[in-house]
Write a structure and sequence with these properties.
- This protein is α/β, with parallel strands linked by helices and about 240 residues long.
- It folds into 2 domains: about 5-150, Alpha/beta knot (3-Layer(aba) Sandwich), CATH 3.40.1280.10; about 170-244, tRNA(m1g37)methyltransferase, domain 2 (Trp Operon Repressor, Chain A, Orthogonal Bundle).
- Helices cover about 30% and strands about 20% of the residues.
- It contains 7 helices and 10 strands.
- It has helices spanning about 20-30, 65-75, 95-100, 120-125, 140-150, 200-220, 230-244; strands spanning about 5-10, 30-40, 50, 60-65, 80-90, 105-110, 115, 130, 185, 190.
- The strands form 3 sheets. The chain has a 5-stranded parallel beta sheet with strand order 2-1-6-5-8, with helices on both faces.
- Strand 9 and strand 10 (about 190) form a beta hairpin.
- The chain is elongated, with a radius of gyration of 23 Å.
- The protein starts with a strand and ends with a helix.
- About 25% of the residues are buried.
- Bound molecules: 6-chloroguanine.
Length: about 240
Amino acid sequence: MTLHLDYLTLFPEMFGYLHTSILKRAHLSGLITSAVHNMREHATNKHRTVDDKPFGGGVGMVLKPDIAHLALQHLALPTHARILLMTPQGRTFDQAFAKELAKETHLVFLCGHYEGIDERVHQHLVTDEVSIGDYVLTGGELPALSITDAVVRLMPGAVGKAASPQEDSFYHGLLDYPHYTRPASYNGWDVPEILMNGNHAEIEKWRRREALKRTFERRPDLLETAELSASDRKYLAELSAERL
Ligand code: 6GU
């Protein structure tokens, strides 16, 4: 099934990313279609105003609800479309959310670029509010593109098997193991010996342990939800004991 992507924005020039790398290939193979829409085309007055001062006072401007509504109506969306409002107040995007969205056939990204968006847009016009993390960006365009990238690369056929998403960081809920390529020794920096002896069972065991060690050191929170075998748990217990 083709995934259709719509972007509602005031900065359509930011969407060149859709036509590079894996997203470019996904368009060419018919896996995705996309359209970028300038919400300013729905402004009604002669100054083409899309925002206004906040009721109750305060700094910054607020995206008008009529602009977002007209822009969405213009898309004539099917009822099954997911309408994602990009906002730091939203549900934090993660790999599980990406997997959920990769099952959809129509995603709409509503990108604001102001202090905020009229609350009635949140209440009446969208199906989801999404954030990409706890920091503040100027607008929703980079979040929309980040989410698009994470979702599309999960679609069957989007990524060559050489870089299979099944092998990715987070796929098993752990950070990735370290990667090396030739030369085996460069500038006195050596590749671990074990990767060069051709023993695939030993290599797999080493990679799993490296992934566990990194996760233990850098993101111990991930260990609470990762799928861990009895031997993983035993190795983690050894790492814990070493740290005492
Ligand atoms: Cl979705 N929008 C903005 N403006 N800033 C963010 C964000 C979204 N997610 C994290 N920071």
